[in-house]
Design brief:
heterodimer; A: 382 residues; alpha/beta; Rossmann fold; 2 domains; six-stranded mixed sheet; 40% helix; B: 287 residues; two-stranded antiparallel ribbon; 10 strands; 35% helix; globular
């Protein structure tokens, strides 16, 4: 075990190295590219025995990663924004083929207009593609979640997207504890799932009729439901082994006696904690629910954790046009029929618009002033 | 070494129970290739007739691992498979991607050029029926000049893109054209591709009787006429050295073109122009 300063992208690379990935295919995109550069260096320095496939596009990056996984290797890739969208059909396909691929994503705003700044809209756009999605609040969690992602993926046979924000995390140094390789080996032993195997030939993705298709989809969704439990179990075991329990689908912070709960995901969580600390010190009964797993969406966990509050404020660093922020919409759906609480949601920080501690406090203040009628996806900071 | 029919394995690794039309040129190409590729082969096939006819629900016409990939990505998937096999110490498995003209020359070209440039040990096959048959026969970049397609009732106004020249320009150590009417020539080319430690490209003319509007029982015959008229040259480029592997008898191009329904709009002048260019091409002693 050692402690060092790492950017989020380096933390993802270290996580992948500790997970002993065997194949990485990658196409450079800003701001995720340092993760790939670091993995390439691990390979060239002899610190990681893996093959790097230098593909010509993001689409081929996931295609090659998927091919490697089908042939039995532990496979990893990294992308964000346009790269992730370009991969979209391969994302759906990978999930449908039930391959335990892990991908890190340095969340970035989508074009147009062109922006290279942080936002969660890229990940949110993939909310129906069948991948488990974890959001990380700091670089330590990026490393820890990357390792856990493989454990989860290989248990439920679904791919996992590990989200961390562009620049805010990808290019910011933080102190990160790097666990011992032997302990990670014990936590995550190499298991091979060979789908394309000359010793056991089979047809993969054959033309599927209405007699079968729906049943495959049912089983795929069942795997997602299984992940609800598995994500928590993996977090628990990881916590016991490595001393950091990032909780399961959600984490509650200072929710005891809270009347007003903040709900958000990603790097905003770290600053929301500070806001809660400050408001609590002023005697205000504010708590925080961190959404760690965006998919599967933590419906039951949210219902349980928000049972006793009378106000919920959601920060959405994404916009679903014509509908509002995705997290706000889903939190409201999850809480439907539960008590008469006020769910206010705000669109914040798009394309890198500043949304730090002060802005969080301002939104809390706005939200506090509302009564009964929900504020649905109000834009903050225009 | 010249292949003889008695040298070929009796076992059929592809084809039995396949869902293709009964005169499918693509299925014939697959059957011939598998005689050489053998059972230690993993094949990836992007969206195409060949992908759909290879398996239905829980049945497959392949006795080797067969993966029906998305349209744009078969060579990239194959790269990942090669990387995964290598890291596991498996070096005796052939990795093949097998696309139609769309999956190779058009929508699949980006992944193909990427894989070719990386020069990993694998083979990409383009089985070319000169139109998008899996969606009903629309025009592709491989559709020849003047040919009718389901979305063009006049005739293609531009020439067929020369994929063999493009792939040759990647500096590959093995590039070859082939035809299902010349099975031993085709199979020897697969042997040569397997012997190449880098990336190999084989482009097979595989007629589709429906798209070409010819009688089904004449699939092989028209594949042969394409070669003998000089319109589909059989050759290979091994480490930069180009060799014609079959000397055509140069029958009139009209004998190949005019019986096909897809060329029913072709003018006499156009046929003459094609004949002139073919005569000139072969007459210059390019061997």
């Amino acid at each position: 075990m050692s402690t060092t300063l790492l950017t989020g992208s380096e933390a993802a690379a270290y996580g992948a190295k500790l997970a002993k990935i065997e194949v990485i295919a990658y196409y450079p995109i800003t701001p995720a590219f340092p993760a790939m550069e670091r993995v390439s260096k691990f390979i060239q320095d002899g610190e990681l025995k893996a093959n790097f496939v230098r593909v010509e596009s993001d689409h081929s990056a996931l295609a090659a990663t998927l091919g490697a996984s089908l042939a039995g290797a532990r496979a990893f890739t990294v992308t964000n924004s346009q790269g992730l969208l370009y991969m979209t059909e391969v994302c759906y396909h990978t999930a449908g083929l039930r391959q335990p691929v892990v991908m890190a994503c340095a969340n970035r705003a989508l074009s147009a207009p062109h922006s290279r700044f942080p936002e969660q809209g890229d990940a949110v756009s993939q909310g129906a593609n069948g991948w488990i999605q974890l959001f990380c609040e700091n670089n330590q969690e990026v490393l820890d979640n990357t390792i856990q992602a493989f454990k989860i993926a290989e248990t439920v046979k679904l791919p996992v997207l590990v989200n961390y924000e562009g620049y805010v995390q990808s290019h910011t140094l933080e102190e990160v504890v790097i666990p011992d390789q032997e302990k990670v080996n014990a936590f995550l032993p190499l298991v091979r799932f060979k789908t394309l195997d000359v010793e056991n030939p089979q047809g993969v993705n054959t033309v599927t009729s209405p007699d079968f298709y729906m049943d495959y989809k049912f089983r795929q969704n069942e795997a997602m439901n299984e992940a609800v439990k598995v994500i928590g179990e993996v977090a628990e075991t990881y916590g016991q082994e490595f001393g950091r329990n990032w909780s399961g689908l959600i984490e509650t912070y200072k929710m005891d006696g809270a009347e007003h709960a903040l709900v958000c995901m990603g790097s905003m969580v770290s600053e929301a904690r500070l806001a809660v600390d400050e408001l609590r010190s002023q005697g205000k009964k504010v708590g925080l629910v961190k959404v760690r797993a965006w998919r599967p969406f933590p419906v039951e966990a949210l219902r349980a954790s928000l049972k006793k509050v009378n106000k919920v404020t959601v920060f959405d660093k994404n916009i679903v046009y014509g509908m509002g922020g995705a997290l706000g919409t889903e939190v409201r759906g999850a809480l439907y029929g539960q008590a008469s609480l006020n769910v206010n949601s705000y669109i914040v920080g798009l394309g890198g618009r500043k949304f730090g501690l002060n802005e969080i406090k301002q939104v809390i203040e706005l939200s506090e002033k509302t009564v009964k009628q929900d504020v649905i996806s109000e834009w903050f900071g225009l | 070494m010249t292949l003889r029919i008695e040298d070929l394995p009796k076992e059929e690794l592809f084809g039995q129970g396949n869902g293709g039309c009964k005169a499918c040129g693509a299925a014939i190409a697959g059957r011939q290739a598998m005689k050489v590729l053998g059972e230690r082969t993993i094949i990836t096939i992007p969206a195409s007739c060949m992908a759909t006819l290879g398996g239905n629900n829980q049945k497959t016409a392949w006795k080797i691992p067969f993966y029906h990939t998305l349209f744009e990505m078969a060579p990239a998937v194959s790269s990942g498979i090669r990387a995964a096999l290598e890291i596991q110490g498996v070096n005796d498995v052939n990795v093949v991607s097998w696309g139609g003209d769309a999956g190779s020359a058009d929508i699949g070209f980006q992944a193909l050029t990427g894989a070719a440039e990386r020069n990993e040990h694998m083979i990409h096959v383009c089985y070319d029926n000169e139109m998008y048959m899996n969606t009903g026969g629309q025009q592709s970049s491989q559709t020849p000049l003047y040919a009718l397609t389901s979305n063009d009732h006049i005739g293609k106004p531009v020439k067929k893109k020369n994929m063999l020249a493009i792939m040759e320009a990647h500096g590959l150590d093995y590039v070859a054209s082939a035809s299902i009417a010349y099975p031993f020539d085709l199979m020897e080319k697969f042997q040569n591709a397997l012997a190449n430690p880098g990336f190999s490209y084989i482009h097979i003319l595989a007629p589709c009787y429906r798209g070409w509007q010819i009688p089904g029982e004449k699939t092989i015959e028209f594949a042969r006429l394409a070669v003998e008229s000089g319109l589909w040259e059989l050759f290979e480029v091994k480490k930069g050295v180009r060799t014609r592997t079959h000397e055509p008898s140069l029958i009139p191009v009209a004998d190949y073109l005019l019986p096909q329904g897809r060329f029913k709009n072709i003018s006499k002048k156009a046929v003459e122009e094609i004949q002139t260019s073919i005569t000139k091409y072969y007459g210059r002693g390019d061997k």
